[in-house]
Design brief:
AttH-like fold, 3 helices, mainly beta, 23 strands, 13-stranded antiparallel sheet, 5% helix, 10-stranded antiparallel sheet
Length: 391
């Protein structure tokens, strides 16, 4: 799904501040709940995801103005030659503040600042050895070169945070390598190269992923579920040469969460036998699981099998209470998918990987072990959880 659906729409919670302050060093010291961030809104006039469509590349790797929200999301687990592990998250969100053909674009600062596009970035590093999770949030209007997204040449950026195509001379506009460069104010940084190890996956129904019963309550959802990753991570003044595997989601839509839904748990898992698993569980206010919960199993060749809630058994085995927010998150799970002969034990590698940003959520690296077809397997993964701080 990605998942950070409420996070993206929460950009509108800070939009008014960013919109009328051209200085990029203004701070927003607030965090809102999922319910507040997704408390409705007028979607009239925006483009909607209403059914399967044909995708065209490289255009569909780029931005989709007219849809209200969009994101380019990367997570991964990388290791030094000695085996030291780092998890990371890097996401750039685009939010359109007014519908297409609207005349409401602010003109307070002249043509250079005139835009209806707002960008938000989240960057986090999980240092597993030290059980240290550091993160930063940035935001900017898509004007004056501060932030933007484009297809030719392929680039998504927010100030000096950047996703960029690096094999532009190649002839494969569907599967290509990119680089990410980003640095926090404390000099924590990543400089990584990503090359798809599997073909692009169209999640949901050929890339159309419904989230609710109403027409347009859906997204278009593309993913690279396994990308070979190499480069450097800088933390605490030390630069580490790393390699490993990453996951990328690109999703765009105009939609809002239904009143009956309070949050989700989203798993991305890469197994040692070459299989990948995506599963998101939408949680209703009454504790039940939404019928729009879904997932997929991707085999080593990139073939997708869709799974639904009736095929999945999830048991929460441990929980962790955040000392920052008081939210209580699951921290260990058993997941069984009998139809795939899959039984997994998942644990957060350390508990405190909460993102205390505009919308508070949990985004953390996982340890994975279990069995598939009675054969032992291991793996790495990420878990994203929202809606646990409503109380």
């Amino acid at each position: 799904m990605k998942k950070l659906y409420w996070v993206v729409l929460a950009i509108t919670c800070v939009a008014g501040i960013v919109w009328f302050w051209p200085e990029k060093d203004q701070e927003i010291n607030t965090s809102v709940s999922v319910a507040e961030a997704m408390g409705g809104g007028d979607n009239e006039g925006y483009l909607r995801a209403t059914g399967p469509r044909e995708f065209i590349f490289p255009e569909d790797h780029g931005p989709h103005p007219g849809f209200r929200t969009e994101w380019w999301y990367y997570t991964g687990n990388v290791f030094t030659e000695e085996g030291r592990q780092f998890g990371y998250q890097f996401t750039i969100f685009r939010s359109q503040l007014n519908p297409p053909d609207s005349n409401e674009t602010a003109e307070a600062f002249g043509e250079e600042w005139n835009t209806d596009q707002l960008y938000l970035g989240h960057f986090a590093i999980s240092d597993v050895e030290n059980e240290d999770h550091v993160f930063e949030e940035r935001y900017s209007r898509g004007a004056a070169g501060l932030a933007g997204a484009q297809t030719e040449p392929y680039r998504i950026w927010l100030e000096d945070w950047e996703i960029k195509r690096i094999d532009s001379e190649g002839n494969n506009d569907k599967n290509f390598s990119v680089s990410i460069r980003a640095k926090m104010e404390d000099e924590t940084a990543l400089n990584l190269k990503f090359t798809p190890s599997k073909p692009l996956v169209l999640q949901g129904e050929d890339g159309y992923d419904p989230k609710g019963p109403e027409e347009g309550n859906a997204s278009y959802y593309l993913a690279f579920t396994r990308m070979a990753t190499e480069g450097t991570i800088t933390k605490d003044g030390n630069e580490f040469e790393v390699s490993g595997s990453s996951w990328m989601d690109h999703e765009w839509s105009t939609s809002a969460l239904g009143e009956e839904q309070e949050g989700w748990d989203w798993f991305s898992i890469q197994l040692s036998n070459g299989y990948d698993l995506m599963y998101y569980q939408l949680r209703n206010n009454d504790g039940s699981v939404s019928e729009f919960t879904t997932g997929s199993v991707i085999d080593p060749e990139g073939n997708k099998t869709t799974i639904d809630p009736s095929q999945v058994e999830i048991t929460v085995e441990e929980r962790w209470e955040s000392p920052h927010s008081g939210a209580v998150y699951p921290s260990a799970w058993n997941i069984k998918i009998p139809s795939e002969n899959l039984n997994l034990q998942l644990n957060t590698l350390f508990p405190d990987q909460e993102m205390d940003v505009s919308v508070r959520y949990f985004e953390g690296t996982l340890s994975v072990k279990g069995e598939i077809n009675n054969q032992e397997i291991s793996g790495t993964g990420f878990i994203e959880m929202t809606g646990y701080d409503e109380s």
